[in-house]
Amino acid sequence: MVNRSRIEPGPGQESVWDYPRPAILDDSTQHIRVVFNGVAIADTHRAKRVLETSHPPTYYIPREDVQMAYFTQTSRMTICEWKGQAAYYTITVGDRQEVDVAWSYPNPTPAFAGIQDYIAVYPGRMEACYVDEEVVQAQPGDFYGGWITQNIVGPFKGAAGTWGW
Known about the structure:
Layout: E1 14-15, E2 24-27, E3 32-36, E4 39-44, E5 48-52, E6 55-62, E7 71-80, E8 84-93, E9 96-104, E10 118-121, E11 128-131, E12 134-135, E13 137-138, E14 147-148, E15 152-153
Parallel strand pairs: 1-15
Antiparallel strand pairs: 2-5, 3-4, 3-11, 5-6, 6-10, 7-8, 8-9, 9-10, 11-12, 13-14
């Protein structure tokens, strides 16, 4: 059994156990950068974070700050109970490709209208993702796309044994 006891946040930290359920959208002015196969495919100070109990933030980047020439939409689609139907993308840069590694919500629910025309990526499948020049750790597991930094404490949903949280 995985321990799900809340870690007390220190100064300047956030606990994912203080995030709400249902999820909410939060504006971010942090510097967000995504690198794939040596190319900065996204760079912004205008990201939005989705915050949900037990999950590290997922960052959504405006398309204007994403190098969309490297993205190809696929046929994969999923449904989020909070955000609506997601569309997925494959990223190809040079000789490297990752399938269904990014997603967006073309027609999000009203509560998440702010992420229409924004893109999110799985940080664990990128070369590196940065929040204010800190390299991000990926949320455990292969389903969620949360970004873990030194100012986010858990424990985090996603690892084996946490699906029931």
